[in-house]
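Need a sequence for this fold. Nothing fancy.
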């Protein structure tokens, strides 16, 4: 009898906590809607702010509740709150069913936002550029079986999409394909979070070596972390380079790259992203 009474008390306490959590979610919703009244549609997506929220929660977390589950809960909350502030659709690269990109999109943006499957990366970029989708989920550019979609982001139009996130942000997980990653694009410039990567597209003279390209970047004060892709042509080569830290469009280091004209003829910032969590970051 005593154990039954104890069990009833514990269950009653769990119910009380559930009610408190529910009340706080409703309070958070009210605050988010008030914030939404002060923002325009272009400010619905704030990937840097979202990353800072989740990173702060993970840093303060303790106890046996898994960090991965904590992040899934908050990503779902964030996605739902974005949907309350305005209509947001996500165009997802899906060359065939089961590719894993849909799962990446759902994990990050939640179950509320509208998902639009698109068969090619070029069509995803077009949907975001034209405004029929606010976010696009693109294949990683270092995959040999995908088109070099990043080249289409090298223009000067203010409507061109920019890279804003790398997925999965919440660390590797099941049902996404082994090691599958993607980039998210949107029509905004990502804001710095203190732990970021940037992407530069470079047009260079032909036949340039990786060592010479890295040397040119270093001389301009830019630390490259990866040469993600290269598209060769007769008169010039195009390279996609991942950069350590956050770069803004007016960063003096970018113009410094092309001042001497060789080996870099043109440099275009394509965006960037907050660095995702690793498995070690989320270990319990």
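Here you go.
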């Amino acid at each position: 009898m005593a154990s039954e009474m104890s069990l009833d008390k514990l269950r009653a306490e769990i119910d009380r906590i559930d009610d408190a959590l529910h009340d706080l979610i409703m309070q958070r919703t009210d605050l988010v809607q008030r914030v939404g009244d002060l923002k325009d549609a272009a400010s619905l997506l704030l990937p840097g702010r979202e990353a800072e929220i989740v990173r702060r929660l993970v840093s303060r977390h303790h106890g046996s509740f898994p960090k991965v589950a904590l992040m899934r809960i908050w990503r779902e909350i964030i996605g739902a709150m974005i949907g309350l502030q305005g209509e947001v659709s996500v165009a997802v690269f899906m060359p065939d069913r089961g590719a894993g990109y849909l799962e990446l999109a759902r994990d990050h943006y939640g179950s509320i936002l509208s998902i639009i499957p698109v068969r090619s990366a070029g069509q995803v970029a077009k949907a975001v550029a034209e405004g029929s989708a606010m976010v696009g989920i693109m294949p990683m550019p270092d995959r040999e079986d995908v088109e070099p979609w990043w080249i289409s982001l090298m223009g000067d139009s203010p409507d061109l999409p920019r890279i804003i996130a790398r997925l999965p942000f919440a660390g590797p997980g099941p049902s996404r394909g082994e090691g599958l990653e993607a980039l998210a694009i949107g029509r905004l410039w990502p804001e710095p979070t203190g732990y970021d990567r940037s992407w530069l597209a470079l047009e260079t003279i032909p036949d340039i070596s990786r060592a010479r390209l890295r040397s040119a970047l270093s001389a301009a004060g830019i630390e490259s972390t990866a040469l993600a892709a290269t598209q060769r042509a007769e008169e010039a080569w195009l390279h996609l380079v991942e950069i350590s830290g956050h770069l803004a469009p007016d960063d003096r280091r970018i113009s410094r790259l092309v001042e001497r004209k060789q080996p870099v003829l043109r440099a275009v910032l394509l965006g960037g992203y907050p660095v995702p969590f690793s498995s070690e970051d989320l270990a319990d």
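For context: Residues 2-37 form the longest helix (36 residues).
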